[in-house]
Amino acid sequence: MPKAGYYAVAVGRTPGIYGTWAECQAQVTGFRAAQFKKFGSQREAEEFVRRHRAIKSDAAVPLAGTSSGGMVLPSRAQSKPDRVPAKNKGRTRGNSPIAEYAAADTLPERFAKLAAQGFMFTATSPPRLVVYTDGSGLSNGTRRACAGAGVYWGDGEAAQHNIAERVPGKLQTNNRGELLSIILALENCPFPDIDLEVRTDSQYSIMSMTVFLPTWIKNGWRTQAGPVKNVDMIRHLLVLMRRRQAPMRFKHVRGHSGHAGNDRADELARSGAAMPPLPDRRTWLDPDDEPVDHKSATDVAADIDPAWLMSEAEMEEYERSLAEEQSESRQEA
């Protein structure tokens, strides 16, 4: 059985005390400046929340299945989930519009033919091929955990390149699904010589592969919290990024906000999570085995609203919580 724990969410979609990492993760992933931590006792967890949010006892309701003295969550009247107004659907938290796709008749001949097949391109010069990636994790931290990856290239003829795949190996988490979806997009990109824009709602993936990557490499793939989590996938993805023939960039999109491309990738990821288990890959690419003349990963651009960025301390706290949940999952298995 996994260790008992109290996940305190001081700043998130619905602040309060949660009994599992999966519940906590749903409240903090993608939430600007989220504050959360796991404790061994309810008292410590409640004190953490009070220090950050000053939650009043009369604003709390019992967690389902507990007595009035059990774990509590704030009432929805006091703390509403973070939602995007209907008029802002398809926009980032900072309300900067996501670039519209270029109309086929405005593109150079080669790109126009591909757009007619259902592929998506940015209205930039040169145009960038757009792909949406997403991961899905269910029952994180339990022996029933399953995760999947989804890659959406478009509809029509482009749909034959869409991917839904189960995360390989025993470790099944949402973040591994997010990383795998980007890996699959690069491994199976139908036009590697065209500039690529990877659109994802995973702040974790973007920051791992851009903001924190140079420091992790310099420090031997370690953080103050210990070894970098999911380092096998991150190192593999680094090699794929360096091997690309054409430039690529990440673009952050708001998840579950009515954006069609992201929603389609999410559907594919959920389908992947429902697939039968897969053995772990026998080999993940190692950047140390690559020629030294490959371009640096820092050449990869990232387009993300600064309001969404985690601080390094928040990323480390996120990784600590993730490591604890992964450890508990292994013990239960």
Automatic annotation (TrEMBL):
Protein's name according to its UniProt entry: Ribonuclease H
Residue span(s) of domain RNase H type-1: 125-274
Entry function: Endonuclease that specifically degrades the RNA of RNA-DNA hybrids.
TM helices/strands, residue ranges: none
Region (Disordered): 70-95, 270-305
Coiled coil (UniProt feature): none
GO molecular function, one term: magnesium ion binding
Cofactor: Mg(2+)
EC class: hydrolase
CDD domains linked: RNase_HI_eukaryote_like
EC number(s) on file: 3.1.26.4
Catalytic activity: Endonucleolytic cleavage to 5'-phosphomonoester
Biological process terms in GO annotation: DNA replication, removal of RNA primer
Stored InterPro entries: Ribosomal_bL9/RNase_H1_N (IPR009027), RNase_H (IPR050092), RNase_H1_euk (IPR017067), RNase_H1_N (IPR011320), RNase_H1_N_sf (IPR037056), RNaseH-like_sf (IPR012337), RNaseH_domain (IPR002156), RNaseH_sf (IPR036397)
Family: Belongs to the RNase H family.
Keyword list, A-Z: Endonuclease, Hydrolase, Magnesium, Metal-binding, Nuclease
Gene3D superfamilies found in the cross-reference section: Ribonuclease H-like superfamily/Ribonuclease H (3.30.420.10), Ribonuclease H1, N-terminal domain (3.40.970.10)
